[in-house]
Specification:
It is a single chain. The protein has 429 residues and is mainly alpha-helical. It has one domain. It has 20 helices and no strands. The chain is globular.
C-alpha cells in the first residue's frame, strides 16, 4: 500500500509544480507526462500488472477512461472550433456594447454570458478564450480587470456543474457511477443555481466599490472571423448537446455521440474550405488547441488510482468517511483535496472511494464530489489546471495577479458557493 500512496502524492505534487515552474523555452506541456511515469513505476514494481491495466482500459464500462477522454476532447474540439471562428469574442464584444458605460451592467453581462456558454461548452475552453479578451477590454477601457476576470473564472467553474459535459471531472465521476444526463440534471440544477447566486453575491461584496466607477472609453468592436463556419459550429454544438442528453434513451453512449458530432463538423468544414480553395485555418487551429494532454493525464492517474484501489487504500478511505453526513464530508474534503492533488486526479481518486460507500449514500457522495471538483478551483490556482493557466494568462498580459491575490479573491466565492451548492444537494437528494 505504501508505494502506490507515495507515487500518487508525488505525481499530484509534480503535476502542479510542472505547470507553475515550467521554463518558458519549453514548448510542450510537462504535466501530462508525470502520471504516465508514475503509472509505469507502479507497473514495473509489481503494484499493478500490465494485464490488469489492459483489461481495465478495454472493458465496456461507462467509466472506461478512454471513453471519458474521447467525450471531453471531442466536445472541446467543437468549442475550440467555434472560438477559432471568432464566435466567443464577437459575442462578448456584442454583450459589452449592449451593457453601455456602466461597470455593473458590464460585470453582470460578462457573468451571464460566461455562465450560459459554460453550460453548453466547457469551462476550461471558456476561461482560456474569455480571459485574454477581458484583459484587453479592461486595458482599452482603463479599468481594473480583476473584478471581471474573477467573475469569469467563478462563473465558469460554478455553472459548469449544471450539465455533466461542463467539466471533465463531471464526466468522469458520473460515468464511474453510471449516472445519465437527465438523472444528473434532475439532481444538480438546484445546487448549481444556489451556487451561482451565492458566488455572485460574494463577488459583489468583493468588488462593489470598484464597479461603481463609470466607464469612459469605447468598447472593443469585434466581428466574426468566419460567419458561415460559426453558424455551422453552433448548429453542431446544439445537435450534439441535445443528442447527448437523450443518448441513454436511444441506446447510444455519450462518447460515441460527441465523437461523431465532432468528426462531422470538421469534415464538413474541410469540404467548405476545399470549395473555397482556402487553407483550413479554423480546422488546423482547432486541432492544435484541443486539450490532447488530457489523455495521458487521465489515463495515468486512472492507473495510479487503480493501484491504490487494489492495495485497499480507497476502501480504507471510504470506511474513514463512513455513511453519515456524506454530502458535507465528501463535498468539503473533495474541494480541499483538489487543491492538494488538482481536481482531475482528485476526481479519479474520489470516484473509487465513493464506490465503497454504502448503497444508500453512494450517490450523495458522488454528487458532493462533483460540487467539490468544480468549486474547489476557487480556493487556489492549484485546484484546477484551468486555474493555473488562467493565472499565467493574466500575468503574461501585464496584470500583477499573484498566488495570494487569487486566494484572496477566490476564498469568499468558494465558501459561499460550496455551502450553497451542498445545501441545494441536501434538498434534491
Amino acid at each position: 500500500m505504501v508505494l502506490p500512496i507515495i507515487v500518487a502524492l508525488c505525481s499530484s505534487l509534480l503535476i502542479g509544480l510542472s505547470v507553475l515552474l515550467k521554463p518558458e523555452r519549453v514548448k510542450f506541456e510537462i504535466y501530462p507526462i508525470v502520471p504516465i511515469v508514475g503509472a509505469l513505476v507502479l507497473a514495473f514494481s509489481g503494484s499493478i500488472s500490465f494485464k490488469t491495466i489492459f483489461s481495465k482500459l478495454t472493458e465496456p464500462s461507462a467509466a472506461n477512461p478512454l471513453k471519458v477522454v474521447v467525450l471531453f476532447i471531442s466536445t472541446s474540439l467543437i468549442s475550440v472550433f467555434l472560438d477559432e471562428t471568432g464566435f466567443f469574442e464577437a459575442l462578448a464584444s456584442f454583450a459589452a456594447k449592449k451593457a453601455g458605460n456602466s461597470q455593473f451592467k458590464i460585470f453582470f453581462t460578462f457573468y451571464i454570458t460566461v455562465s450560459v456558454l459554460t453550460v453548453f461548452t466547457s469551462n476550461d475552453i471558456v476561461i482560456l478564450t474569455f480571459t485574454p479578451f477581458i484583459l484587453q477590454f479592461a486595458k482599452r477601457a482603463g479599468i481594473d480587470p480583476k473584478p471581471y476576470v474573477m467573475a469569469e473564472f467563478v462563473a465558469a467553474n460554478t455553472w459548469s456543474m449544471l450539465f455533466l459535459i461542463g467539466n471533465p471531472t463531471n464526466v468522469y465521476l458520473t460515468s464511474a457511477a453510471g449516472i445519465d444526463f437527465f438523472t444528473y440534471l434532475s439532481v444538480m440544477w438546484l445546487p448549481t443555481i444556489f451556487a451561482g447566486l451565492c458566488s455572485l453575491l460574494a463577488l459583489l461584496i468583493l468588488f462593489c466599490k470598484k464597479l461603481k466607477k463609470p466607464l469612459d472609453k469605447s468598447i472593443i468592436d469585434i466581428k466574426l472571423k468566419d460567419k458561415p463556419l460559426a453558424m455551422l459550429g453552433v448548429i453542431v454544438l446544439g445537435i450534439c448537446t441535445v443528442t447527448v442528453a437523450i443518448s441513454s434513451y436511444m441506446g447510444l453512449e455519450m462518447w460515441y455521440v460527441s465523437a461523431i458530432s465532432c468528426a462531422a463538423l470538421y469534415v464538413v468544414a474541410l469540404i467548405v474550405y476545399a470549395v473555397r480553395k482556402e487553407k483550413p485555418i479554423v480546422v488546423t487551429g482547432g486541432i492544435k488547441r484541443a486539450p490532447w494532454q488530457m489523455a495521458p493525464l487521465v489515463i495515468g492517474m486512472f492507473v495510479i488510482v487503480l493501484a491504490l484501489d487494489l492495495s485497499g487504500f480507497t476502501e480504507l478511505c471510504a470506511k474513514f468517511f463512513g455513511d453519515s453526513n456524506v454530502i458535507l464530508k465528501y463535498g468539503i474534503t473533495s474541494a480541499l483535496s483538489a487543491n492538494l492533488l488538482n481536481n482531475i486526479p482528485m476526481s479519479v481518486l474520489f470516484a473509487s472511494i465513493s464506490s465503497f460507500a454504502g448503497e444508500s449514500v453512494r450517490l450523495g457522495a458522488v454528487y458532493a464530489t462533483v460540487i467539490g471538483s468544480n468549486i474547489g478551483a476557487f480556493f487556489t490556482p492549484l485546484g484546477a489546471l484551468a486555474g493555473l493557466m488562467f493565472s499565467s494568462i493574466v500575468n503574461k498580459n501585464g496584470v500583477k495577479f499573484t498566488f495570494a491575490d487569487f486566494c484572496k479573491y477566490g476564498f469568499l466565492p468558494a465558501v459561499f458557493s460550496l455551502f450553497g451548492a451542498l445545501g441545494g444537494l441536501m434538498i434534491t437528494l
